Each structure stands twice: as C-alpha cells, then as structure tokens.
Amino acid sequence: MTEYVNVRASQTLGQDDLVAFLRSRFPAATKRVGGRRIAEGTYCVETKVRSDSAEFEEIRDFIQAKRKEGLPSYFNFTIGHYLRKYSKKELCQAEILRLLINPHFEPCGEECGTIYETLCSECNWARQTSDLILDTRRVPQHNDISETIAWVEWVVSSKFVKVFVDSKLTGARFRPIFEFKNPLKVSTDWSQLWVTGNAGALADATRLGRDPFSPLEVSWRCPLEHSVSASFLSEVYLHRNAWNGSDISVTSALFGQGRNLLRPVPLIVISQRMYQAVERAELKGFSCEVAHLI
What we know:
By secondary structure, the chain is of the alpha+beta class. It has helices at residues 16-25, 54-68, 72-75, 88-93, 109-112, 158-166, 272-280, and strands at residues 2-10, 30-32, 44-50, 80-85, 96-101, 104-105, 116-118, 126-128, 132-134, 145-148, 154-157, 172-179, 186-195, 197-200, 208-209, 220-221, 227-229, 231-232, 237-238, 248-255, 265-271, 286-293. Strands 5, 14, 16, 17, 19, 20, 21 and 22 form an eight-stranded mixed β-sheet that branches. A six-stranded mixed β-sheet has the order 6-10-11-13-12-9. It is globular, with a radius of gyration of 20 Å. The two termini are 19 Å apart.
C-alpha cells in the first residue's frame, strides 16, 4: 500500500497564504481546481504528496504554524485527507474491505418526497420511514452503485442486484425506488441498497483525527454520542467477534455532522467473497480500502 496526502487550499476560505505556498514550493504536484474561469479571489488548488515524504513534513509544519496563530481559515476546515493506493494482490488478500461509493448526485430522496423521522436534533441522525423516491434520471447512468448527497441513500443497478443474488451473497436486501415524476411507478433499473449485515463498532486501533495535520483531535462529536466528524488517519479496524460474517455490513458507528438534508452515515464493509464477485462482474462506482478484523 502506498499512502498519499491530498491537500486542498482555497482563497475563498481565506487560505491565500497556503495557496501561494503550495504553488511556489510544489508546482509539479499542485493543480488548479475548478476549471479555467475562476473569479478573482477564488483560486483553489490541490497538492498530492506521499505521507512519508519530506514534502508532507514541510506542508504539515506550515499548516500547524497557521493553526497555532488561531486563524479560523486554517482551524475550522479540513484541509487534507489520506489517499491509499493498493495493488491488486493486496486487495485480493484482504479478509474484509471498506467499500467507498464514489458517485454522488442530487436531488436526494427527501427533496423528492421520501419521509424521514429525525432521531437526533444534534447530528440529524434519522430513520427512513417510507420507500425511497428519486428522480432516477439524475442517477449516474454508467455506475452500478452511487449515493445521493444525503449520504445515506445508496442506489444500485439491476446488474448489481443480479450479481448479489446469483452469487448468494448475504447482508442486504433491495428496496424499490419510486419515480419522482410518477410516484406510483417503481423503477426497473434501480433499487435501494438496504444493508442488514452488522460490522459492529470500530476497534481502538482505528485512528481518527481532524485531518493529517491535527491527528489528536476530531472536527466534531455529537453531544449525544451518535456520530463523529473526522478523517480516517489509518485503515479501519473492527472487532472480529462483533462482525456477524455478512458479505456486506455496516458499522454501528456513524460519521458526519448532519444538517438539513445531510445525515450521518455508517461505514460499509464487504467480505473478500463479495469483492471477488463485484470485480468479476466489473461493477462500477466504488473503490475499496483494506480493512482488518482483530
């Protein structure tokens, strides 16, 4: 596994000094974000460096110095995150893997008429109490799994469902999705992935932090302890005796500071058996990280 840190800096957030620093010190590794036509004062860049490099240490020193000054533009925002790149062999040897859904789309279900019962006013944790209603024209058509901007609504293709059923995988069922333009019509192309498998809580070996530059603190915790907003500073570790052995499962821990349409979300974990099945079928719309049972 090769680990990188992806750093994003924006003038819009008041990080002009960091933008200038990255562009001058690491021009080859720094790229502009947002296209060609950018208004004055809204320049945004991304820089990717290896986490074990001297470049990372230099960037960390710069950001930590700014945070020690108490500057809100450096303290109130997550500035970077880890990117982990694995060989095919490493992914195929993992007992379990964390599934990351890549495509996002809007509008979300609640904007289309899906009903939720909010269970926590602090983190916006909620229970879906109706079938999912979506404008399926907005679903990424060339991906087999995607999620709405609400984070908790996972949409899969009929191909995904067939692979899951034919492979006799466990830990999920598939709920109907009703068409926004015709609420009595059930989509024949898309279903809601409803995970029933249980992966339990995260083990203490999983390291969380605000971002790679502030490893000893998290961005936010729900006062009622439902969810946490943090970056994963390590791979995910789970308790073997808490995982129920399903081919797809979710953690009991929730992540994200939900508000308005956004809801805190669990992590999705899949077995090696499911990884092999979706790889053979060449399903699209996700990536995987190695996870661990201890």
